[in-house]
Design brief:
Elements: E1 34-36, H1 39-44, E2 57-59, E3 70-72, E4 82-87, E5 92-97, E6 100-106, E7 119-122, E8 125-131, E9 138-144, E10 151-155, E11 167-170, H2 171-180, E12 186-190
Parallel strand pairs: 4-12, 10-11
Antiparallel strand pairs: 1-2, 3-6, 4-5, 5-6, 7-12, 8-9, 9-10
């Protein structure tokens, strides 16, 4: 298996080897901005880890991502519904469409007294200029996930910051995600275990 992980917080993103994967569209297999999974890697990236069924490629991250960093590249990826994966351990959110990662960002999540819930959540509601009535705080590009207000939204993603249970993403990234996401699209929040060294 050719997965590797960088084991420093806040960024730990699993990426496969650069070997091409069978079944990828011919125009995409030569895309230098993507890493295509082998069939074995596709089998190992299971829904139990929050990955979508039929995962084909990940974005090639050129350097360690820091607080506030993100990538967005949906060039050549067919239109369709998106799936979002959030890993609280690595503080990484990934957006997938048609089995291809189209966006990834470093995130904030809930502090100990108000933890971000684990599980799969359909997007219940979208609000571009939402403001929290409970905390009197701006929540731009809100994608609400639960009835009690847990959402993905634009935040000032910086070291030492946390949310009240929400997933905070850089505001520019939030705008991209908001434009793509639809009510009913699924967000899966996991907390993976650290790889053994």
């Amino acid at each position: 298996m050719a997965w590797f992980a960088v084991e420093q917080s806040p960024q730990t993103q699993l990426h496969p080897s650069t070997a091409g994967a069978k079944g990828a569209p011919p125009a995409m297999t030569s895309d230098p901005s993507r890493l295509f999974l082998t069939q074995e890697q596709q089998r190992e990236a299971t829904p139990l880890q929050g990955f979508p069924v039929g995962l084909k490629s990940l974005l090639k991250v050129p350097a360690r991502m820091q607080y506030g960093d993100y990538l967005w590249n949906d060039g050549g990826v067919p239109k369709g519904p998106i799936e979002v994966r959030v890993d609280l351990r690595t503080q990484i959110l990934s957006v997938f469409r048609g089995g291809h990662e189209i966006g990834t960002a470093v995130v904030l999540y809930g502090a100990d007294e108000k933890e971000t819930p684990l599980g799969s959540f359909p997007i219940l509601w979208k609000g571009k200029d939402h403001r929290s009535s409970l905390y009197d705080a701006p929540m731009p590009y809100t994608l609400r996930l639960t009835g009690d207000g847990v959402a993905i939204h634009g935040s000032d993603v910086r070291w030492g910051a946390a949310t009240h249970g929400c997933v905070g993403v850089p505001k520019s990234f939030a705008a991209h995600l908001f434009a793509q996401a639809k009510v009913g699209d699924v967000v899966t929040i996991v907390r993976t275990t650290a790889p053994r060294s």
